[in-house]
Design a protein that fits this description.
Blueprint lengths: L5 E5 L5 H10 L2 E2 L3 E3 L17 E3 L3 E5 L12 E5 L8 E5 L2 E2 L6 E10 L4 E9 L5 E10 L6 E10 L4 E10 L21 E9 L2 E8 L5 E10 L4 E6 L3 E10 L4 E12 L6 H14 L2 H19 L1 E4 L2 H17 L25 H13 L1 H13 L1 H10 L30 H17 L2 H22 E4 L2 E4 L16 H23 L4 H7 L3 H13 L41 H5 L9 H7 L6 H12 L10 H10 L3 H12 L16 H15 L3 E3 L2 E4 L9 E8 L2 E8 L2 E8 L3 E5 L2 E5 L2 E4 L6
Parallel strand pairs: 24-28
Antiparallel strand pairs: 1-9, 2-3, 3-4, 5-6, 7-8, 7-13, 9-10, 10-11, 11-12, 12-19, 13-18, 14-15, 15-16, 16-19, 17-18, 20-25, 21-22, 23-24, 25-26, 26-27, 27-30, 28-29
Length: 762
């Protein structure tokens, strides 16, 4: 680790597991395209590799066979595609081909520069016949031009002179990775891409490809530029293009091949080939120095908006910065896409969007870059009609039910007990819309798109729930915990529904007062009778509570089940989902992840602090944290309860998940939700930040392992920097108007800076 903005690995292991892990860790992405960090020259036969390049929101339809064809069962799904392979660069000197697996690797290094926005690979290599050369590779997916991926491949002849050949490939007939033994990735490999056209003109290769079923088209275009004059031979064979560049190198000379690749899809462009040519032409008009500078300027702005620094632990500070960098690499930059569970780093969960976005990742953008948060909500609005259709499939006469996992709006969950039944997705999305409003007070956007989401999700609760003995109950649903499925009155689901209904009523009032209600009211046909129903359901919502234990049961039946013996379960049997039948798990008190504890973070005002404390203590004993979404939430609630050691323990497990591959599946892609949760563990946990209608609240604490930490947030258009160290908490107004905040319940006006003594014990 060189600097706080650079993560590096020296002396690269050529073990297959290490190679495929580094493909993920050092991938390049910009929210539109993602490229795994494969060796340009590939691996020898017999090595397993997930060689992929992806477009956010670009998909095909795959069959999902059901053993029994019951009504409404999902029989097809969307899957993110590996669209092309433009990484290939092969080097030979006087006939000796460079390979990390032959000759002698004298030194090697890979790194990620999070300030410059690129990855690097440096190798000093001695061939079997003694030729020594230094290969330096620099790769970038541009934030300035989202379609652009570049590779700068530099060769230095250290002790020889002779003929050098660089062969660059552009392959369009590629497949997705599959692993039939892992439910988190595709189980079968299909030919999702149909070659349409391959063209070569002026050294530019263009490959146009259709999807097999979704009706989408992609065009990838590639141009190779060598830094010195060379003999160039380019040709097309099938749905692939090859460009060979040969030249003579003197001893000590350096040459650089710059490979420009652009990706264009039919979701965003009518004529993909023309658009690809135009994008490539624009990329070639400017030198690489321009694109690197533009990349740095984008990231300078990003880090200025979202700076989060830890003092006293440089390695941890770097891990946190890595997580935030991956979030900006992963998040879609338009309303046609969202954030996949693995970002654009791999094929885990097939590129699907989950509730992970709203509950774990969007909070980061809501607080630091609300424009991106607005895009994420706009995506959910764009699939609202599909959510309405989904509700009808599930038997609902009114409202919208968002799919549990999706790309273009249709449900992709084949196992409904732990998928489609997670109705809390509606509450999660409604919560994210509300949080955006609380952070920005952007009522115009609520009137334009947000309110329609809020009202339609509220309507769904009125249809799925009903009144029983004076209480509004919601039966046959699944909460966040996927080891407990198809239950009545999951606490998290019910309290999220209550919050959704509350804000449907509140937004109605706010929009009416602002004269902005009529359009959405007319479109949806909202009635006073309906609103009265919302109000009654909110007030009468059944929230399970156990008098004897003083906790909120996870659902009506949870406490009646035997407790799983976690302590005596063999370590090799974790995660449990890979070793025990779902029905077996459902019959026990055992949690895959935070469920009621998550509710106590998100909806903390629904219960007393004592109830939250007792619930935390109870569920801590029955939670395996088999989900990467879990420990960050336990850290936040432990912070709220003043359990500093536990808060830090859970935080540490969360922060280093991908860099240390603690869940042993980072090869399939990063855990983007955990990365967002890691941010929340600091800002919402240690910082004690809460967004409420009554204002912006903080209850800061300082982990004993740190000397301090600081972060920036944006609130109602103003930027505030929060600095916490042993001398206290300082709140500085960086930009915008003065804002009122609450610290430990006391009100302060931040005009310049405000300092508040630190309370270590709450």
């Amino acid at each position: 680790m060189a600097t706080k903005f650079v993560y590096e690995v020296e002396g690269l292991s050529l073990d297959n597991d290490a190679l495929v892990l580094n493909e993920t860790v050092f991938h390049n992405a910009n929210g539109y395209i993602g490229v795994r960090s494969n060796f340009e020259e590939g691996y020898p036969q017999g090595y397993d590799s997930i060689r992929g390049e992806y477009i956010n929101g670009f998909y095909d339809i795959a069959e999902m066979k059901q053993a029994e064809k019951l009504f409404g069962f999902v029989e097809e799904k969307q899957t993110m595609l590996n669209v092309a392979d433009t990484q290939g660069i092969y080097l030979s000197a006087d006939g000796e081909e460079f390979s990390m697996f032959e000759g002698e690797v004298l030194s090697s290094r890979r790194y990620l520069d999070m300030e410059g926005g690129y990855t690097g690979r440096e190798v000093t290599w001695r061939s079997p016949k003694g030729r020594e050369m230094r290969i330096t590779v620099k790769r970038m997916t541009s934030f300035e031009k989202l379609t652009l991926f570049t590779i700068e491949y530099t060769v230095e002849a250290l002790n020889f002179e002779g003929n050098v050949l660089l062969t660059s490939t552009h392959i369009g007939d590629v497949k997705n990775y599959c692993n039939p033994d892992d439910p988190r990735v595709a189980g079968e490999s299909f030919n999702h891409l149909v070659p349409v056209r391959a063209a070569l003109e002026g050294g530019v290769s263009c490959l146009v490809t259709d999807t097999s079923k979704s009706g989408l088209t992609v065009c990838t275009a590639v141009k190779n530029v060598l830094s010195k004059e060379a003999k160039e031979e380019c040709f097309v064979a099938g749905h692939r293009a090859v460009c060979r560049l040969s030249t003579y190198m003197e001893k000590g000379e350096c040459i650089t091949l710059t490979k420009y690749s652009v990706f264009v899809d039919s979701i965003r462009h009518k004529d993909v080939m023309e658009a690809a040519k135009k994008e490539l032409e624009e990329a070639l008009e400017r030198p690489m120095s321009y694109w690197y500078q533009a990349q740095k300027e984008y990231l300078d702005k990003f880090w200025n908006q979202s700076s989060l620094e830890i003092e006293g632990d440089d390695d941890l500070s770097l891990a946190v910065r890595y997580n935030l960098y991956q979030l900006v690499q992963s998040v879609g930059k338009d309303e046609h896409c969202n954030i996949a569970a693995k970002g654009l780093s791999g094929e885990g969960y097939e590129g699907h969007y989950f509730w992970d976005t709203e509950m774990y990742m969007q909070p980061f953008f809501t607080l630091t870059n609300p424009k991106i948060a607005k895009n994420l909500i706009a995506y959910r609005y764009s699939i609202l009609d599909a959510a309405r259709d989904n509700a009808k499939i599930l038997g609902h006469k009114k409202g919208a039910l968002y799919p549990w996992r999706t790309i273009m709006g249709k449900e992709c969950s084949g196992y409904y007990p732990s998928g489609t039944a997670q109705y809390h997705i509606n509450g999660d999305i409604a919560y994210s819309v509300t949080a955006y409003y609380l952070a920005t007070k952007d009522l115009e956007f609520i009137a334009e798109k947000g309110a329609e989401i809020i009202f339609e999700t509220a309507r769904l609760w009125m249809d799925v729930g009903h009144f029983y003995k004076g209480k509004f109950v919601i039966n046959a649903v699944t909460g966040p915990d996927e080891y407990t499925c198809m239950v009545n009155n999951n606490y998290f689901t019910n309290v999220s529904a209550q919050y959704n209904l509350h804000w449907a009523l509140r937004f109605y009032e706010l929009l009416e007062d602002a004269g902005m209600l009529d359009k959405v009211k007319a479109k949806l046909g909202l009635t006073e009778e309906e609103l009265e129903g919302f109000k009654k359901a909110e007030e009468c919502m059944y929230l399970p509570y156990d008098e004897e234990l003083g906790i909120n049961p996870q659902d009506d039946s949870f406490l009646s089940k035997p407790v799983w013996d976690i302590e005596n379960t063999p370590k090799e049997d974790f995660p449990l989902l890979l070793h025990y039948h779902p029905l077996h798990l459902y019959r026990y008190q055992v949690c895959k992840q935070a469920d009621t504890v998550l509710a106590h973070f998100i909806f903390e005002d629904a219960q007393s602090l004592e109830t939250i404390r007792k619930s935390f203590e109870y569920y801590e004993k029955v939670t395996t944290h088999d989900s990467s979404l879990s420990t960050c939430i336990y850290s936040i609630v432990a912070s709220k309860l003043g359990l500093d050691d536990k808060a830090y323990m859970y935080f540490g497990d969360s922060a280093k998940l991908d860099l240390f591959n603690t869940h042993h599946n980072t090869k399939d892609g990063i855990h983007t939700a955990n990365m967002g949760g890691n941010y929340m563990a600091i800002v919402y946990g240690f910082g004690g930040l809460r967004l409420k209608e009554t204002g912006l609240y903080f209850e800061p604490s300082l982990p004993k392992q740190w000397t301090g930490y600081k972060f920036k947030i944006k609130y109602e258009g103003s930027q505030i920097q929060v600095e916490i160290d042993e001398s206290g908490s300082t709140f500085r107004l960086v930009k915008g108007d003065a804002r009122t905040i609450f610290v430990y319940g006391e009100e302060y006006l931040v005009e310049d800076s405000v300092k508040v003594p630190l309370k270590r014990v709450r």
